[in-house]
Design brief:
The protein is of the alpha+beta class and 321 residues long. The protein folds into two domains: 72 residues, Phosphorylase Kinase, domain 1; 226 residues, Aminoglycoside 3'-phosphotransferase, Chain: A, domain 2. It is 48% helix and 16% strand. The chain has a five-stranded antiparallel beta sheet, with helices on one face. The protein has a two-stranded antiparallel ribbon with strand order 6-7. The protein has a two-stranded antiparallel ribbon with strand order 8-11. Helix 4 packs antiparallel against helix 5, helix 4 crosses helix 8 and helix 6 crosses helix 8.
């Protein structure tokens, strides 16, 4: 199969290096995913994770064709309606979120850790180590700090890295479940009235609290604090495992903060490196989510005081519209 982009309809992409096209032959449609950069992750690993999902009775993109040499794969079309689209039209948003939580709990029960990719090579899902979490959070130091701090930048970044490592060292739960790593309402599709999962190429074996933090503290979809608590409590209610609620709460808050530092770094990088300025306007709300999760945990209160000392309110609200 040779790719002719002129015969395809380009569709909205995301923050990655991928390009997406809808192919139509008569009444049937499919999706072409093109990725020249990071193609192993975006094509080969993406399909491998999707195989694990479909093997465990999830709806996820299935491979139709691949031309790895030409940097693309073809998968089945899961439609145009995201869970976010569905939520925006719904009168009872919580009913949809309950279904999403049910899906998440089902996802966390997957025990498959390896699968053969379309090159017939075995792929093992990696562990979400503290080193990997730290390297992600460090994007805040690498991109956001230089953009906003001119004085004592090196000193601040050095201290910030120590503080982030300290947070990660205080995580209590094991890395023992499948983590999608970007589990939120824009990465779930409504397909034949059922929820399906996309954008799963970054999946790891990690902390049980991570994906819930991604969903509840979604930087793209604003919800009230009371609604966030409602989703969180529903997860605790539906999770049948003997969960230590204090340990889970501790990890949820730390991972939300660390994740959102990473996101601020990524959004700054997207704006400066890739000229995607639209992401900057999401940064003030991301700061508010960090503030929310630093209110109850003494460790995080101290971390927040450090952040606020060095990143003023005017800096945190810099891109507010």
């Amino acid at each position: 199969m040779i790719l002719d982009k002129k015969k395809l309809l380009k569709i909205k992409g995301d923050a990655s290096f991928r390009e997406f096209y809808r192919k139509k032959v008569k009444s049937k449609t499919s999706i072409i995913i093109f990725s020249k950069k990071e193609k192993r992750k975006n094509l080969l690993i993406y399909d491998a994770i999707n195989k694990i999902l479909t093997k465990n009775n999830f709806i996820a993109p299935k491979l139709i064709n691949q031309n790895y040499r030409q940097n693309f794969i073809e998968v089945n079309d899961l439609g145009k309606t995201t869970a976010l689209d569905h939520i925006k039209k719904s009168k009872n948003k919580f009913v949809i979120f309950k279904k999403i939580i049910d899906l998440l709990i089902k996802l966390q029960k997957i025990r498959t850790r390896r699968v053969k990719n379309f090159q017939n090579k075995l792929y093992n899902i990696p562990i979400y180590t503290n080193k990997l979490l730290f390297n992600e959070a460090k994007l805040f130091c690498d991109w956001y700090v230089p953009e906003n701090i001119k004085k004592n930048r090196i000193k601040i970044n050095k201290k910030l890295k120590v503080e982030i490592k300290n947070l990660l060292n205080n995580l209590k739960l094991k890395n023992n479940i499948i983590v999608h790593r970007d589990f939120h309402v824009s990465n779930l599709m409504l397909y034949k009235r059922k929820l399906s999962i996309i954008d799963s190429q970054d999946a790891v074996v990690g902390n049980e609290a991570y994906d819930l933090a991604s969903l509840v503290d979604d930087v793209r979809y604003k919800t009230s604090n009371s609604f966030k608590s409602k989703i969180y409590n529903y997860y605790l209610k539906k999770n049948k495992k003997n969960l230590n609620k204090n340990s889970f709460s501790n990890d949820f808050e730390i991972l939300s903060v660390v994740r959102n530092l990473k996101i601020i770094g990524i959004f700054t990088r997207l704006a400066r490196r890739d000229n995607k300025q639209i992401y900057l306007k999401l940064i003030p709300y991301t700061w508010r989510l960090i503030d929310l999760r630093c209110k109850n945990n003494k460790l995080l209160i101290n971390f927040k005081n450090f952040l606020y000392k060095n990143f003023s309110k005017s800096i945190r609200n810099k891109y507010a519209s």
